[in-house]
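Continuing the batch. This is chain 6 of the set; chains 1 through 5 are on the previous pages. Same settings as before, nothing changed between runs. Recording input and output for traceability.
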Amino acid sequence: MLQVADSRDIVSTCEDKSHLVAFDDVMLSYLSSKVDTMSKLKTLTTTSNMPMAHCLTGYMMKMASDPRSNPAVESSLKTLGELTLNQREAQHRDVLSLWAQEKDTDALTKLEALLDDYPEDMLALRIAHHLHFYMGNSNSLCESVRKRLPFWSKDDPLYGFLLGMLAFGLEESGEYRDAEHAGRDACERNPDDLWAAHAVMHVMQMNGRWVDGVQFANDVLSGWSGTNNFVYHLHWHKALLQIGRRDYDAALAIYDAHLARVLSDDFYLDACNAASLLWRLQLAGMDVGQRWLTLAEHFNHRCADQELVFASLHYLMAPAQIGDEGTIDAALESFESWSSSASSQGQVAAKIGRDLAYALVQTARGDERGPETIKRLRRALPAIGGSWAQRELFKQLTGTPVRFA
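Output for chain 6:
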């Protein structure tokens, strides 16, 4: 096995220099939200024993937030246990192991320590970004990237993706002007950077720039092809911008044309997009017809998942709306057991997730105790993760005036 340095002088273990080239290509696909990422990664892991390829596979499986992916995570860890790793790779393995044990906080602490030693490790930066996001710590989401920015060359091909991450962290920290500047810069450097475009759309939404936002969404969405399901989250954002314009029919049309047709993919973010948009439209007085029933048919089997509190709350919305008592009971029982777990997400369930789950059901039933509970919990809402825009739905359920769609 060789120790091969990339353009940032970060050394990886591989059998041939071509494997590092292939890994860099996979990373570019991943950062560009390309649908071919996993097929490229599978080819690399089946033709080489490159540790970082197996680390990336494990990380990708964990980011799916699907318990059915856990055996694949364990398989990656088993393979890593059989390989000779350098110091950085061993740190990545330990991060993945902690994450697989549902010790998200410990995994993130170790990742940040890794980044102190290797600030140009883009994979570590991206995984840390994901974990900070779902822990709801806006300042850390921003500072994790900002702290490493000085170590990067502005001429690095991946520098734009770093700016896209910074843009989102800045937006979530309320630094909207700087966020938009960084996001637009990132989009110019890498037109395929969906995350950067996403950050700009967040800025426009948070600032109530509905018309500008819809135009920006139209411009970027028309230029993408071969993207994975994250693109539908940007369609969701466009729908929220249409709600901001009070064009509810346009928002519902986006649901039918883009969000509904991918529900069969069984991906957690698609469920979150769909459920939260339907409830927003319903709050605006729209008749959403049988769409709740269809959504429930696709995701009721996920209601007892114990991977991500944010996702499980959204899985519960459809059965709560249609009054599927069996599924509701199963989901609430799952939250009860989850809140007794020592896992990081179990602690979130205990702090706020369980009570929010009951409150969602009560709110859907017209029980005034639901909105009152959400009001009581409002300051703890960031603990469930997600963005300020996504969590705004919970405030809307209390009758609080809409700040952004």
